Request: fold
Amino acid sequence: MYDVSTRKRALALVGQGRSLNSVSKETGISRAAIRAWRTRIKPLPRMQVAPCVRCRPTPEQPEDAGAYSYLLGLYLGDGCISACADRRTGHFLRIACADAWPGLIDACEAAMRSVNPGKSAYRVQAQGYVSVVGYSSHWPCLFPQHGPGKKHERSITLAPWQQEIVDAHPWEFIRGLIHSDGCRITNWTTRLVAGERKRYEYPRYFFTNLSSDIIRLFTKALDHVGVEWRQANARNISVARRASVALMDEHVGPKH
Reply:
């Protein structure tokens, strides 16, 4: 599925006197498609996709900002964007979700369908996990953090419009990060009470990421909603205070 701007670029190359074969090799678009566009450049109604909100003359935010904030958290944790290896010019967004959390997989797919301009997503089963996948030529527009190399080896910052969404929907962003690279666990300790050693259990949340930038985005969101945290080490954030754990339980909860 190619948008009108892609079709116009291909036809412009043909208009420069280039052969269909050379344009096809350069763009990855089949000669048959380019030939057909000479008589009809607009996609058929059944194939038309809503335009990307970031590519409009006046860029806008995604319609479902809450779903976007959640998907952004998932992407920063366990997601990647890759160019198509075949003759299409779009990209795949993949989010890895463990088989142990079917509710998380459902939430991820729902968010991806909502955010994807094409309103589509599907699942690919692997050993021990599911990749939730969506195809679109506009993922790099929607997630400008996309780039070569691993996330923790490059700078990760939010665009101003993304920060506005996260500020408006901080819990969705926090939930996405916890669902990707976090967990809720029960710790225990023992104390001596009246000469008798007793065991005490208490819940806490952990978030682990190799990127100091992503750690910073996570703790900034926690500060925004009033959750107290501490940095256990360079890549681990802990939330253990009772009131803060209660807040996290109310808005995030354990994976399911």
